[in-house]
């Protein structure tokens, strides 16, 4: 049953990625399009990897796909940062996208280290097939990195909620906060198998991807709303 739920949530995440790629295609900013498209494409490899890990017994495939197991660490992180920049006019007007993303370079370097150097161990799980777990102390470092990034996003979203009175902007920022909150709960739950029978990581990640697609897809309406405010 757990594998069926995992497959369903992975398919849902891939569907949200396809939706987000379609939405990003309507954005006028070409740099945003290119960066967003690369991040989404890279993130999609995580869910393909999870499906392979769930059902494949070919260790060569499993080992070769390990570099994509933590693809969402960069993908969803930077997609969230893109969504916040896209929602908030004072960020779009005050700082170019490339310079804005450079502010998150420390996080990206850490995630790249994990992806490339692979401080991990392969574990066979009776419920989910194979899992790729970080070895100590990198699981703690990852929690610190993700927690600090969520803290930064939370601060920016709260500033935006107080700064802008238009309901659409506030709703989108609240959706980002909700997605980040669910990821926090997911991280806490994953550390204690007694909390949940089914690991939520793919569900919460799919929701975060859906939020990105929704925000970008409704971007033109938001721009018109700001002009008329």
Q: How would you summarize the topology of this molecule?
A:
Blueprint: H1 2-24, H2 30-55, H3 59-64, H4 71-87, H5 89-94, H6 97-102, H7 105-117, E1 120-125, E2 129-134, H8 138-163, H9 167-190, H10 201-217, H11 219-228
Antiparallel strand pairs: 1-2
Question: How would you describe this structure to a colleague?
Answer:
By secondary structure, the chain is mainly alpha-helical. It contains eleven helices and two strands, in the order αααααααββαααα. The chain has a two-stranded antiparallel sheet with strand order 1-2. The C terminus is likely disordered.
Mean pLDDT, all residues: 86
**Strand percentage:** 5-15%
Residue share in helix: over 70%
Radius of gyration over C-alpha positions, nearest whole angstrom: 18 Å
The best one-word shape is globular
Largest sheet: 2 strands, antiparallel
* Alpha plus pi helix count: 11
Q: What's the order of the H and E elements?
A: HHHHHHHEEHHHH
Strand order of the largest sheet: 1-2
**Low-pLDDT windows of residues:** 194-198, 223-229
What class would the helix/strand composition place it in? mainly alpha
**Cα distance, first to last residue?**
50 Å
Report the strand count. 2
